[in-house]
Specification:
The complex is a heterodimer of chains A (about 375) and B (about 290).
Chain A lengths: L3 E9 L5 E10 L4 E5 L6 H9 L6 E6 L2 E2 L10 E4 L11 H10 L5 H15 L14 H13 L5 E5 L7 H18 L2 E6 L2 H7 L2 E6 L2 E6 L1 H6 L4 H6 L6 E8 L2 E4 L5 E3 L7 E6 L5 E2 L10 E12 L3 E8 L5 E7 L9 E6 L4 E5 L5 E2 L9
Parallel strand pairs in A: 3-8, 3-9, 6-7, 7-8
Antiparallel strand pairs in A: 1-2, 1-4, 4-5, 9-10, 11-12, 11-14, 13-16, 14-20, 15-19, 16-17, 16-19, 17-18, 20-21
Helix pairs in contact in A: 2-3, 2-4, 3-4
Chain B lengths: L10 H27 L2 E3 L6 E3 L3 H7 L2 H34 L4 H9 L6 H11 L6 H7 L11 H29 L3 H10 L3 H12 L1 H18 L1 H7 L11 H11 L3 H29 L4
Antiparallel strand pairs in B: 1-2
Helix pairs in contact in B: 1-13, 2-13, 3-7, 3-10, 5-7, 5-11, 7-10, 8-9, 10-13, 12-13
Classes of the chains: A alpha+beta (about 375), B mainly alpha (about 290).
C-alpha cells in the first residue's frame, strides 16, 4: 500500500514520437485510478512506465517514498494484470501464482497459505493443478488476478484486463475487481479504452488524449463538468451533442444549417455548445419552450434499447445531427418534426478554438 | 474422423504409388539387401558368397576396434550436439536482445549455413594445418602443439570444432524464431515476478523453447551421427589410420576400403536398429515433455 506520484512524465521513442507529453498525477493510498482514452493516447505507455517495462524519458515516478525511475520492475513492489493474462503456459495455476513469491524467497508454508487464500477468494481452488491451457478465458483472468494479489504489492497495475472477455463476463469481473480492490485497499491504476468500465470502476478518472491529461476527477464530476470537447464526447454513451456556433450580430447561429435558437452572453467569436442526450427534452404539442434553447429536429433514426430510445435527428433542414434520449415506450415517425429544449444548467460551453470548457451560464432564450 | 471418398477404389493407392516407389527403391530394397548381406561372407572379388549366420555380428561386437569406434561416436555425438545447441542458443538469446542493426547480426550469424560440409572441412583443415594453419600457430602460443591427423585427440578436437561451427547457424535460426515466438507479455510478467534475468531465462523462456529444443536435439544427433561424414573424410584426407572415426565412416572404410561387404552390412544393420530405437525414444519424450499454450 502506497501513494504513487507521477511528476511531468514524458516518453519519447527512438524515432522521435512523443507518446506521453508530461503527465503529472498524485494518487492517494488505496485509491482506484482509471486511465482512459482512445487507442494511441499513451495510457498503456504511462502504465508500463510505472511498471518499469518502459524507460521514463523524463520526469519522476514515485511509489511510496521511493523514486523508481531506475528501479527494476521486480523491485518496484507492483503487480500487473495483462490484457492477454500472460500466464506461464508451462506452469500449473498454483505455480503461476507462487512463482513471484518463490523468486522473492518467501517461505514455502507462507507461499502455500497465500496461494490457497487467493484461490479461495477468486474461487479457483479446484483448478490449482491445471495448466492455463485447460482453463476458460474467465478462469485465466482469475488466475492472472490471483498472481497479483498473492504478492500483496504496494500497487496493482491493470492493463485492459477485461477486454478479452465476452460482454457478460466483463460486467461480472468488473464488479468483482471493484469489490476486491475495495476489500484489499491496494492502490490501483487501471487502463481501459471503455468509458463505461472507466466510469464504474474509478475513484478518480484520468482522461488522456494525445499523450496529455485532459481531465482528472471523480467520474460524476467528469461527466457533469467535462473540461474539454474531447472529454465531453469521450465520456458518456451516447456521446454529448456538440454544436459549433458563431456570433452573428447579437445572436448565436449554428455554423452549418439552422434549427437552433439560443441567446448567450459570451465574449467570444466561436463557441461549441454541448448538451447531453438525456438533457434534451421534447416539448409537447401546443406548449412553448421554457428553457434557454429551442431546437427543431427532423427525426432521422430511432434506436430502441428497451428502457429508452435514442432518437437521432438533424437540426432544421440538413443541419448537424443530434441525439436525444426518450422513454422506451415513446413512438417516433421517421421524418417527423420535434421541438426540443434544454435548461440552462444542463448546457456546456466550450471555446470554439481551444475546445476548453467555459464557465459562463447562458442567460436567456429567444422565443 | 473425416473420410474422403474416391470414385475408384484403386485411386488412393495410385496416388501414393510414386512415394511408395521411392521408399521401396531407396530405402526398403537397400535395407533388405544390407540385412541379407549381413548374414553372408562376400568374396572380395565378387565370386559368390557364403552363408555365415550371425557370425558377422558376433565378429563386430567382440571386435575391440569396433567398440572403440562406437564409444568415440557416442562421445563425438554428445559433444557436437551439446556445443552446437548451447552456443547457438547463447547467440540467439544475445541476437534477440539486440535492438539496433539486428538484421546485420542475424545475417552474419547465418552465413556459415551456406557452406557445404566438405568446404567447411577444407576451411577447418587450413585453419589447423600442421604447416600453415593460423589456429595451430595461435594455440601453439599456449603450449598446445597440435598435430591434426597424427594425434588422436587433436584430430577429434578439430573434427568436433568444424562440425559444431557448421551446425550452429541452423540451430541459431530455429532458436531465434523460437525466442521471438515467446509472447512479450509473458516475458514482461516474468520481469515483474523475478529480478534475476538468468533465473527468468531458465524458469520461463527456456521451458517455452522446449518444442524447438527437442526438435533441434533430434536434428543435431542425426547430424553428428551421419551428416558429419564429409567433414571427417576431409579432415582425415581419406586416410583414417589410427585416427578417430565414427560408426558411419567405419561402415564406409570397412566396406569399400576393406572390401568386407558382409561385415560392413552388419554394421549398417546395427546402425539402423540404433536409429530406430533413438527415434522411438525421442518421440516418446517429445510427447511427454513439450507443452504449448
Amino acid at each position: 500500500m502506497a501513494k504513487i506520484k507521477l511528476d511531468d512524465i514524458r516518453k519519447v521513442y527512438a524515432g522521435g514520437v512523443e507518446a506521453v507529453k508530461g503527465v503529472s498525477i498524485d494518487i492517494e493510498d488505496g485509491e482506484f485510478i482509471v486511465l482512459v482514452g482512445p487507442s494511441g493516447c499513451g495510457k498503456s505507455t504511462l502504465l508500463r512506465m510505472v511498471a518499469g517495462l518502459e524507460a521514463i524519458t523524463s520526469g519522476t515516478a514515485q511509489i511510496g517514498a521511493r523514486t523508481v525511475n531506475d528501479v527494476e520492475p521486480a523491485d518496484r513492489d507492483i503487480a500487473m494484470v495483462f490484457q492477454n493474462y500472460a500466464l506461464y503456459p508451462h506452469m500449473s495455476v498454483y505455480n503461476n501464482m507462487a512463482y513471484g513469491l518463490k523468486n522473492r524467497g518467501t517461505a514455502k508454508a507462507e507461499i502455500e497459505s497465500r496461494v490457497r487464500e487467493a484461490a479461495r477468494i477468486l474461487e479457483i481452488e479446484d483448478y490449482l493443478d491445471r495448466k492455463p491451457r485447460a482453463l476458460s478465458g474467465g478462469q485465466r483472468q482469475r488466475v492472472a488476478m490471483g498472481r497479483a494479489i498473492v504478492r500483496d504489492p504496494a500497487a496493482f497495475l491493470f492493463d485492459e484486463p477485461l477486454s478479452n472477455l465476452d460482454a457478460k463476463l466483463r460486467v461480472q469481473m468488473r464488479i468483482e475487481i471493484k469489490k476486491l480492490q475495495k476489500s484489499l485497499g491496494t492502490t490501483s491504476i487501471y487502463v481501459t479504452h471503455d468509458q463505461l468500465e472507466a466510469m464504474t470502476l474509478a475513484d478518480r478518472l484520468v482522461v488522456l488524449n494525445g499523450g496529455q491529461v485532459e481531465q482528472i476527477g471523480a467520474p460524476i464530476d467528469v461527466y457533469e463538468k467535462p473540461a474539454s470537447t474531447f472529454v465531453a464526447s469521450f465520456i458518456g454513451s451516447p456521446a454529448m451533442n456538440l454544436l459549433a456556433l458563431q456570433k452573428q450580430g447579437q445572436s448565436w447561429q449554428l455554423q452549418e444549417g439552422e434549427g437552433l435558437e439560443i441567446e448567450l452572453d459570451v465574449a467570444a467569436e466561436e463557441i461549441t455548445l454541448g448538451v447531453r442526450p438525456e438533457d434534451l427534452h421534447i416539448i409537447p404539442q401546443g406548449q412553448t419552450s421554457h428553457g434557454v434553447l429551442t431546437a427543431h429536429l427532423i427525426v432521422s433514426a430511432v434506436e430502441p434499447v428497451g428502457a429508452e430510445s435514442y432518437v437521432h435527428g438533424t437540426l432544421g433542414n440538413g443541419g448537424p445531427e443530434v441525439i436525444l434520449r426518450a422513454p422506451g415506450k415513446a413512438q417516433f415517425a421517421i421524418g417527423s418534426k420535434l421541438d426540443v429544449t434544454a435548461t440552462p444548467d444542463k448546457l456546456h460551453l466550450f471555446d470554439g478554438n481551444t475546445g476548453k470548457r467555459m464557465e459562463i451560464t447562458p442567460m436567456r432564450v429567444v422565443a | 474422423m473425416k473420410r474422403v471418398q474416391f470414385s475408384h477404389p484403386l485411386l488412393p493407392y495410385m496416388l501414393l504409388l510414386p512415394q511408395l516407389a521411392i521408399v521401396a527403391v531407396f530405402f526398403l530394397w537397400p535395407a533388405g539387401e544390407a540385412i541379407r548381406a549381413s548374414f553372408y561372407l562376400e568374396d572380395p572379388f565378387g565370386f559368390g558368397s557364403t552363408f555365415v549366420g550371425l557370425e558377422n555380428f558376433s565378429d563386430i561386437l567382440t571386435n575391440a576396434e569396433y567398440m572403440r569406434t562406437a564409444w568415440f561416436t557416442l562421445f563425438y555425438t554428445v559433444i557436437v550436439a551439446f556445443f552446437s545447441l548451447s552456443i547457438a542458443l547463447l547467440l540467439a538469446v544475445k541476437a534477440d536482445a539486440v535492438i539496433h542493426g539486428s538484421a546485420t547480426y542475424r545475417t552474419l550469424l547465418m552465413w556459415v549455413y551456406a557452406i557445404a560440409p566438405p568446404v567447411a572441412g577444407l576451411v577447418g583443415i587450413m585453419l589447423f594445418d600442421l604447416h600453415v594453419g593460423p589456429m595451430r600457430d595461435f594455440l601453439a602460443h599456449f603450449g598446445w602443439d597440435m598435430k591434426v591427423g597424427v594425434n588422436y585427440w587433436d584430430t577429434a578436437f578439430v573434427m568436433a570444432i568444424i562440425a559444431v561451427w557448421k551446425q550452429i547457424p541452423v540451430n541459431f535460426i530455429f532458436f531465434l524464431s523460437g525466442l521471438q515466438g515467446v509472447p512479450k507479455s509473458i516475458q514482461e510478467a516474468a520481469a515483474i515476478d523475478c529480478r534475476s534475468g538468468t533465473r527468468r531465462f531458465w524458469s520461463v523462456t527456456f521451458p517455452l523453447l522446449a518444442p524447438t529444443g527437442f526438435f533441434l536435439l533430434i536434428i543435431n544427433i542425426t547430424y553428428a551421427l551421419f551428416d558429419t561424414f564429409g567433414i571427417i573424410d576431409i579432415v582425415l584426407k581419406g586416410e583414417p589410420g589410427n585416427n578417430p572415426i565414427t560408426l558411419v565412416y567405419k561402415v564406409y572404410v570397412d566396406g569399400f576400403r576393406g572390401n568386407d561387404l558382409g561385415g560392413s552390412s552388419a554394421q549398417s544393420v546395427i546402425l539402423m536398429v540404433l536409429v530406430f530405437a533413438l527415434t522411438i525414444v525421442q518421440f516418446r519424450m517429445i510427447e511427454r515433455r513439450v507443452h504449448y499454450s
